Amino acid sequence: MSAKSTRSTADRVERARRLEGPDDTRALYDDWAGEYDDDLMREKGYSGPEEAAKVVADALPDRSASLLDVGCGTGLVGEALAPYGFTAVDGVDLSPGMVERARAKGVYRRLFVGDLLAGLELPDAAYDAAVGVGVFSVSHIAVPALDELLRLVRPGGRIVACIRIGHDDTKGFRRRFEALQDEGRISIVSRSRAPYMRANNDACEILVVERR
After folding, report:
1. pLDDT of residue 14
2. Which of 136, 81, 122 is nearest to 105 (CA)?
3. Alpha-carbon distance 141 to 169, whole Å?
4. Residue 112, number of CB atoms within 10 A of its CB
5. Options 3.40.920.10, 3.40.50.720, 3.40.50.150, 1.20.1250.20; which CATH number does 3-211 get?
6. Nearest-angstrom CA–CA distance, 93 and 102
7. pTM for the structure as a whole
8. Tens digit of each residue's pLDDT (9 = 90 or more) over 33-67
9. Which residues, other chains included, contact 98 with Cβ-Cβ below 8 Å and sequence gap of 6+?
10. Whole-number Å distance between alpha carbons of 130 and 207
11. CA-CA distance, 19 to 185, in Å (whole number)?
């Protein structure tokens, strides 16, 4: 890999940590969509999607369960879920460019562009479960969006949240999940640690949450 493309990846990763609102987020990821998989998977050793898929597979024995991939990006989570036999995975992302890349992989039932914080045009309890990898992040989504996520998952359904350790919880996602449990709206079923970005020796915490 050339020094030029290495700098490009580093610059984009750094910018992703300093995003300022949905327009800025959309612009970065639309521009990055074509190189995102190669940059993250080959250069950075991005293993979050694979690790989260293992947890989803353990948490959801019913492979026909309807599942929403929040911030699906180019479809890395959908690809990681496919070998487990899930047949009803939908994906939503703020970036049209990323959604088109995900569509080309053919691993989703349905894909759409949307902003979780602004609310999605979907009925209550539309899904049996949801998964988010790389979205519960320092600059990608605001903590109040968790309320919309809870609205979309049926009572008794599961949410699998992958949160990068040491970088991405300055907005308090872990604290909010714990507060939601104290409020009686969820139960935290399990918490586990896994590799996240191998090139940086970064790890993540993966929470499995049950909607009450």
Report:
1. 67
2. 81
3. 11
4. 15
5. 3.40.50.150
6. 10
7. 0.88
8. 888 888 888 878 999 999 999 999 999 999 999 99
9. 29, 30, 33, 36, 72, 73, 74
10. 12
11. 30
